[in-house]
Write a structure and sequence with these properties.
There is one protein chain. With 392 residues, this protein is of the alpha/beta class. The strands form two sheets. Strands 6-5-4-7-8 form a five-stranded mixed β-sheet, with helices on both faces. Helices cover 33% and strands 14% of the residues. The chain has two domains: 72 residues, no CATH class; 299 residues, no CATH class. The longest helix is centred in the first third of the chain and has 28 residues. Bound molecules: zinc ion (ZN). Zinc ion (ZN) binds next to loops.
């Protein structure tokens, strides 16, 4: 995959060449008959964070001014050194308050930064998927399951669908299904219903829509002549996968909950086939403070929750070794290395090597809604959306 090893901030000004115009509306960025991009150097500006002198440019096609920093993930950040500790802290099970205790600053600054990291992770993941599609790397069997968590209030749970490749353990797709919560006790039902009357009931059919979105994504990145083998449990919404003749689905129902006694052959087979889905569920809960049971670090917005899952996915695919048990000799083998989409294990710093512009990537509709924070959390009241024009 074509991704720089050096961060834009660290490239000497004389060696840096702006790759394209950062303005989405520039005629040089048009899909149909684009005008060739041309720019000129136009002075410098001084700033407090290093590098203190930054070169400015002017696009001669549309007249927009920009600088070398415009192409860095740390664009407009007053503390560019916080990107790596924030990403690493989020995947080490820390809350924003705990990260702020260690590295300084206010927890709300870290929360805002985490959203930028989440958006960057989503765009980077989309780039990696595009590489997988172009090089026809998708041939392994797959496994799919939902992780149940919540934001703001437990009566607004959300299922996070994770689709992964069984052999390389590469996480391919993330989807989100906010749904109503089944309640057993009468007083719980009454409290839930009063909340739904006040803030609105979660939309019906969210699982089916999420599964359809993941199915379409899977079909889009796989070669048309490859038959895809998928293992799932018996959730009725997963039948949406069966609508594509290219997907061959094996169903392994979850066993009824009971303790003790020997496991039947079907149960053993279910655990063998869906092992990776169970492990991913455990690891995401282990690594993210907001997904732990009985936590006070739970997340407040569903959109931010899903963005945080993307940070986790990018770490799992590119930064973390495929297996910790395999020992030091295999420590450089990440799922992405095993899949063959990149040559070596990436560091967090490399993840942030350059900024990705959303207008240069076609995000699927459900991901675009999460990127712009249009996925509403009813309880929050006024849900702010991400509408910044130049930043990201
Ligand atoms: Zn331009």
């Amino acid at each position: 995959m074509d991704w720089p090893t050096q961060r834009v901030e660290n490239i000497p000004a004389d060696e840096f060449v702006p790759p394209h115009c950062p303005d989405a509306g520039c005629p040089s960025n048009r899909e149909t008959d684009p005008v060739p991009f041309r720019c000129i150097r136009k002075g410098w500006y001084r700033r407090q964070a290093a590098p203190h002198r930054v070169r400015r440019y002017l696009c001669t096609v549309c007249g927009r001014g920009f600088s070398q920093q415009t192409f860095a993930v740390s664009y407009y950040l007053k503390h560019p050194e916080r990107l790596v500790p924030c990403a690493a802290g989020l995947c080490a099970g820390s809350s924003f308050g705990q990260i702020a205790d260690v590295h300084g600053g206010h927890r709300s600054s870290w929360a805002r930064l985490s959203e930028r990291i989440g958006r960057h992770a989503m765009l980077l993941h989309a780039l990696v998927l595009e590489e997988i599609r172009a090089r026809r790397l998708l041939v392994e069997p797959l496994v799919y399951d939902h992780l149940e968590t919540f934001a703001a209030c437990q009566d607004y749970p959300i299922g996070i669908g994770l689709l992964a490749l069984k052999e390389s353990r590469f996480v391919l797709s993330v989807d989100a299904a906010m749904h109503a919560r089944p309640r057993r006790l009468p007083w719980e039902r009454a409290r839930r219903d009063s909340r739904y009357r006040r803030w609105g009931r979660p939309p019906r059919g969210a699982y089916a829509r999420a599964v359809a979105a993941t199915r379409d994504r899977l079909l889009a990145i796989s070669a048309p002549d490859v038959r895809l083998r998928l293992a799932t449990d018996a959730h009725p919404a997963y039948r949406r996968f069966d609508r594509s003749p290219r997907i061959e689905r094996a169903v392994h129902p979850n066993p009824p909950r009971r303790r003790g006694g020997p496991r039947s052959a079907e149960v053993r087979e279910r655990h063998r086939q869906l092992w990776l889905a169970d492990v991913l569920d455990k690891l995401v809960r282990h690594e993210t403070a907001g997904h732990k049971r009985e936590t006070i670090a739970f997340m407040r917005r569903h959109a931010c929750l899903v963005l945080r899952v993307f940070v986790n996915v990018v770490r799992r695919n590119l930064v973390a070794p495929r297996s910790k048990r395999a020992g030091r000799a295999q420590a450089h083998v990440t799922p992405a290395v095993r899949l063959g989409v990149v040559d070596e294990r990436w560091s967090w710093s490399r993840i942030f090597a350059q900024r990705i512009f959303p207008h240069r990537i076609a995000l699927p509709d459900d991901w675009a809604a999460i990127y712009d924070k249009r996925l509403n959390t009813p309880m929050v009241g006024k849900n702010t959306t991400h509408r910044l024009r130049y930043a990201y």
